[in-house]
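Fill in residues.
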């Protein structure tokens, strides 16, 4: 009887101990995993959503995970807007620089911008072309505003700097002949800079001064055929036409036409296509004032950039 009572008590105690153990495990929660297993769990929770690029190709973009920083998440390269210029790097970018859907520039294309004249004239003489006995001053002083009295060299430089930025925004590589008034660079050397760069275009910026105060508008100059310019005449003519039309479109300036010149040192020393733009007439009071405003200068620069880019596309 006593033995039976002892066995019964022991069974009850065992049941109580088992129940207590189960309650304790339930309160403690599931077993803690190792760091490696937690990483595996996070990876399995990385759910990707399907998106479509502008070219129609499907890509996977990881969704954000709480507790995981952007830098820790896998990501795909951003797909550029088809009309936003992209200047890339690496092997793909070395072939072309994308400007817009369906169009591109060769990465090797360089445009050299020459802001005509400089702070001080250099009246020493140099040949108008290689080996010529005909001489002209290295750099003349240029004209100045009849009302503003601003020197042409400064207006040329201000527009040149705006043109540089406008072309670079299109992905064009630009070399500036000068970025300050304090230089002394003969016209032959300016052409030499473009030659050394193997420029796709050498564009020379000037303003005009004429005897008639009523004269105004935009004038384009391009090289004619002579013993130096033969190889560059055809492309220079194309560039002149495109830039002239584009500037007239952005500015609404009077079209003063195009002149073919054989006597300009900057043309005759050039071995690359070249044009010279007379952006306006500084001896005209109204146009003088306009040429010194940042807004009109930007219109000129934007027009030239548009024309240059069209030219580069067509090469």
């Amino acid at each position: 009887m006593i033995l039976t009572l002892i066995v019964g008590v022991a069974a009850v105690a065992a049941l109580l101990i088992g129940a207590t153990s189960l309650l304790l495990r339930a309160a403690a929660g599931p077993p803690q995993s190792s760091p490696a297993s937690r990483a595996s769990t996070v990876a399995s929770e990385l759910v990707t959503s399907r998106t479509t690029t502008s070219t129609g190709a499907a890509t996977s973009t990881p969704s954000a995970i709480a507790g995981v920083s952007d830098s820790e998440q896998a990501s795909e390269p951003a797909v550029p807007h088809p009309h936003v210029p992209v200047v890339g790097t690496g092997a793909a970018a070395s072939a072309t620089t994308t400007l817009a859907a369906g169009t591109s520039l060769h990465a090797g294309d360089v445009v050299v911008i020459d802001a005509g004249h400089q702070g001080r004239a250099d009246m020493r003489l140099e040949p108008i072309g290689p080996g010529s006995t005909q001489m002209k001053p290295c750099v003349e002083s240029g004209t100045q505003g009849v009302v503003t009295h601003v020197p042409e060299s400064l207006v040329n430089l201000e527009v040149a700097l705006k043109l540089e930025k406008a072309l670079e925004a299109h992905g064009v590589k630009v070399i500036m002949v000068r970025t300050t008034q304090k230089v002394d660079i003969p016209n032959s050397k300016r052409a030499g800079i473009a030659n050394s760069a193997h420029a796709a275009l050498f564009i020379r910026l000037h303003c005009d001064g004429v005897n008639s105060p009523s004269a105004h508008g935009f004038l384009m100059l391009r090289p004619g055929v002579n013993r130096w310019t033969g190889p560059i005449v055809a492309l220079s003519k194309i560039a002149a036409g495109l830039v002239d039309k584009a500037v007239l479109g952005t500015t609404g300036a009077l079209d003063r036409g195009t002149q073919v010149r054989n006597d300009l040192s900057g043309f005759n020393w050039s071995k690359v296509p070249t044009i010279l733009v007379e952006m306006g007439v500084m001896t005209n009071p109204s146009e003088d004032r306009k040429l010194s405003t940042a807004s009109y200068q930007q219109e000129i620069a934007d027009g030239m950039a548009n024309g240059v880019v069209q030219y580069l596309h067509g090469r």
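The longest helix spans residues 2-28.
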